[in-house]
Amino acid sequence: MVICNQCGHGNEDGNQFCIQCGSSLGKPKTEEHIQHSYGDVAENQTADSNETATAGISASNDALAANAVSSDNSAKAHHRKPLILIIAALVTVSVVVSALLITRTMELWGPRTIPVIQVSTAQDAVAKLKEQGFSVTTKKMFSSMKKGAFIGLDGVKQGDKISRSTPITVMQSLGPGVPEGTVGKSSDDAISDVKDMGVPVTVNKVISNTADKVVATNPSQGNPVLDISDGIHIGVGVKGEGIPIEIAGMDKDSAKSDLESQGFTVDLQPRFSGKDNMGKIVSAQPSIGAPSSSKNVVLYYGADASQSKDVVAPATNIDGTDIHIATGASALAGQWCTDDGDCIALDDSKDKHGNDALALNDKDHDNELLSMCNYSQNPSAACAAEQIPGTQAFAMTNHLLAGDSGAFEIYANQGLPYCGDSVFIGGIAQFCIDGKIQTVSVNDPLYSQIASLPRSGLEYKMDDFMLVVPVGAHIDTLEQNGYFKDSKQGDDADKPDATRPYILRRDPMAYDQTTAKYDSATNYTNPFVPSEKGKPVKFAPYPSAQKAYYLVENPIQWDALDVDAHIGSQGTDASSSSKDDEAKTALSKLAGDWTCYTSDRGDVINNITITEDGSFSGTIRVDDQPALIGVDHDVQHIDLSGRFTWENGAYSIHDVSYPDGNYTHMSAASWKLIAAGQSVAQWDPDSEAGRDLSHAGMSLNDPLSKDVLYSDSGAYVRN
């Protein structure tokens, strides 16, 4: 055995290095040699050699001790290594844990705290949350808040901690409306759902086979309120005489048979509707659900683009041939809304000749009339959607209705030009000079002089124009024929829902030119609408789901129903405020510009502007020499102001600033409003109102061409 001088470990003979510490063994002493040396020193001790022996023994012992210490230290060092590693690991873990705790507290990882959101719109709330790294979705719902407002967060609140993978739902207001699932509830439950929408709530009685349950609503469930003053209607079923609500949605032949078995005489007529309602009853006259003793009824059933002419252009027999005449625009009457809740109302109305028209009402329009063809004193000729036998061409040849796409157009002002800011028809007593309409009686000595003056200031404007697309219309055909200004954008997911009839509104912002002169350059033809002479400018925007206004179907005429209760916007009885609402609605109908032609010479003309609260202001224009157009002369302008009120179902006038009734024609207290297209029985042409209308070039024997506000003291015509 060979002993290592470094660590004292015994190694096998012949080893050159220690297997314990790896040191070189050199020429080590054997174990026997060491023992023999120690024996020799003990046996041969002498006085002289004692010191030497002692020194040798001491050196040897020191070496052995050193070797022992070295071996012990090496062993301790060997055992300390795992401990050091453990301590180092613990320190590392401690540092990591501390870092994790700090970064978690800083919310650099792990759950996050929902911040305080102080914004007004849902769009801003979404943007703020996304900026801070949250996943965000939007939930749209009806509320008393305005459309687009930030209602709050769904299921969580500001200050809550949530997982990073959990999306936050921002609630966005659609404005007031009727939630899905309202039909079928009890009256109390339905009222509870809508009473806090911030609009009036009316409970109506609806003739039904099911009593005491909500059987219908207006607007239809899932749709927003369009008329804030009218608010929400809840229809509760009652037994009674009339067409029951259950007729709605029935197959047309079954519904006809059902009512005929009850003694009704039934006429079936088509109306545009959704794909699921084809051939089913969608409305009626008298109204479905309304109390009525009449046994003669019209049932309207769902139709698609294949029946477009039958719906809006009823056939008229001309010289033995049935010709479709486009005078049935009122078939489109109703509410039309985008999926985002932007709505327009198309109300049944009459044009200047008493033909069916639509009154456009939305946030930017008040009773703007829309029709389907160009102006003419002979609608049978101007609105023929097909060629009349014996004629070379027909007026609507360039209208879509005359084609086979199933789509068609409706537009404002029948393609007429403007004189200044007023639509100009012209005629024997009206002229446009320097952009102002001049009305002169043919009996006026100055008539021939004025009639000879050059016409100036006439131009065409890009008015409201809409493309109506019933279910089944061939939009691809229109695209192939170059009808649209722009090409398709996006994928098929951006297309409008073809299972519902919809309207597209032309966007003037998509055009560089929105006016055109009324002159030979335009062939005296409006380039913005179709006419016998040409097609309109190409339509923009291209059809998309975001731009489509879909028909909101509702089978009931709500104003024909009995009222059971008025509920205020906060759930309180609104009978005390209903009169205020009635007055507000009535006065809003007067809003606009009005003119009174107090003389057939045009020497006194009153122009006033009435606001929605009934107050008005304007001027009395006194011109002793009205024929001197374009020549400097004295013209007097007198300020005129006052206010209208609505009391006991009639308009009254108050506080007229200028007392001379000979100029103002406002001396009478009680006034009436007659809408364009209506007739008034027993007009007295010698009354002040009759003379004023005659001065305005309006015939008293025909339906009124414009709205008229009149009294015993005079008449004002809406511009």
Textual characterization of the structure:
The protein is an alpha+beta fold and 719 residues long. The chain has a domain at 579-718. A hairpin with a 5-residue loop joins β17 and β18. The protein is elongated and about 155 Å long. The chain crosses the membrane at residues 83-102.
List the helices and strands and how they pair.
Blueprint: E1 2-3, E2 10-11, H1 31-43, H2 47-105, E3 112-113, H3 122-131, E4 136-141, E5 150-153, E6 161-162, E7 168-173, H4 187-194, E8 201-207, E9 214-218, E10 232-238, H5 252-260, E11 265-272, E12 281-285, E13 296-303, H6 308-312, E14 315-318, E15 321-324, E16 334-337, E17 343-350, E18 356-362, E19 365-371, H7 379-382, E20 408-412, E21 418-419, E22 422-423, E23 430-433, E24 436-439, H8 447-451, E25 458-461, E26 465-469, H9 475-480, E27 502-505, E28 515-517, E29 549-552, E30 562-567, H10 575-588, E31 592-597, E32 604-610, E33 615-622, E34 636-647, E35 650-654, H11 661-664, E36 670-674, H12 688-695, E37 708-711, E38 714-718
Parallel strand pairs: 4-7, 8-10, 11-13
Antiparallel strand pairs: 1-2, 3-6, 5-7, 8-30, 9-10, 12-13, 14-15, 16-17, 16-29, 17-18, 18-19, 19-20, 20-26, 21-22, 21-25, 23-24, 25-28, 26-27, 27-29, 31-32, 31-38, 32-33, 33-34, 34-35, 35-36, 36-37, 37-38
InterPro entries: Zinc_ribbon_dom
Transmembrane segments: 83-102
Pfam family, one: Zn_Ribbon_1
